[in-house]
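Ligand: NAP. Inputs:
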Amino acid sequence: MKSVLITGCHGLTGQKLVELFSGYSHNIYGIDLHQESIFQGMAGYQYHQFDLTNRSKLLDLIEELSPDVIINTAAMTQVDACEIEKERCWKINVDVVRYLVESARRFNMKLIHISSDYVFDGTAGPYNELDRPNPISYYGKSKLASENLIFGGGIDSAVLRTMVLFGHGRNLKPSFVSWIVTKLREGVTIKIVTDQIGNVTLVDDLADSIHKIVTMNISGLFHVAGREIISRYDFAVNIAEAYNLNKEYINPTITRLLGQVAPRPLQSGLIVDKAQRELMLNFCDVDEALRKYRKQEASFN
Ligand SMILES: NC(=O)c1ccc[n+]([C@@H]2O[C@H](COP(=O)([O-])OP(=O)(O)OC[C@H]3O[C@@H](n4cnc5c(N)ncnc54)[C@H](OP(=O)(O)O)[C@@H]3O)[C@@H](O)[C@H]2O)c1
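Predicted complex:
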């Protein structure tokens, strides 16, 4: 039985991981910013509230808990905010990873980290693990810097790049899917881009991959995402259809007209063959992911 420390345990991926690992009776430690644990009373689970950017506190806690594996899901994930608040972005997305690498090296632990397709420029996707990153946004630069720290850190590690995550959880920030469903239910007209292409990922596929990496003790770089490549516009239409909502409210547009702060990789996407083969998993296509997502909804309402 391995003990795992999950940073960002109240986030989309963190919550799914706590749920998943608790089903396999691992000892689980969670860290997040919020006062109250959302998993209060869960057997084998211990919550620690603090800001990961506090290096000495983080290193002391890791030494005390002595987990076998650290899974880092905490990050500043709002791409436009990262472009504006660069210092905060770097602190969370890069400096915290530096501290985790330091801990993993000092206490001989495995570090599993999540990165993004934003490490690519989106001129020639879909990309495999050997393609050369060239981030065009500050968020993407921070995620690439975090990868480099890990792979240059002389530790046992795995990095999973993913994209367009969605799933259920408590008190989460809206995902692309939950935002579309809310807007269409309200009968609001929305503009969705036709020129951002890539995979969409049910968080279960990411969590299952991380679980396999822990149990099979696998290391390296993996692209983990839904197995289908689709435009954001087509995905929005699929969401409307899955929810029997009126897709006439979805209007096509292009990225240049949205005036977003951070540049987006357009022709992106992750080739997931290596992860599916080595982790022995079949990731969802769009229909399957939306079907599972709808089915899971009941337990969160
Ligand atoms: N979501 C996506 O579409 C996507 C796509 C590609 C890659 N990724 C990567 O996947 C990973 C997980 O993403 P996610 O969407 O599951 O993230 P998320 O839902 O934003 O969860 C991150 C959690 O970490 C917490 N956190 C942030 N800064 C912290 C700090 N300094 N100390 C302690 N806790 C802190 C957050 O709290 P607050 O919410 O209060 O800030 C949140 O609970 C990230 O590395 C992200 O870059 C995500």
